[in-house]
Please model this.
Amino acid sequence: MCPDCQAAKLTNGLWNTFNSPQCPYCTARLIQRIGKLRTPTSDAITARRRVVLADAVAWGHAEEQIRKLAKGPLCYQPEVRE
Ligand SMILES: [Zn+2]
Model:
């Protein structure tokens, strides 16, 4: 499991490190976190979220997956059970 997803899960989303753009779940949590920032304008928030999303898409992740994850509850990479 992604170590930052694991730490975020253990701290109920309070973990402040995001393995973005490598992990789509961290990227989605980062986009959610940015959305809660207090900034002078919402344009700044939108611009920052777009940069994070574009970085992850450039890394090879699916834009729709991240958008969907970011719209949902806090998300963490699922644990793989073998
Ligand atoms: Zn992660």
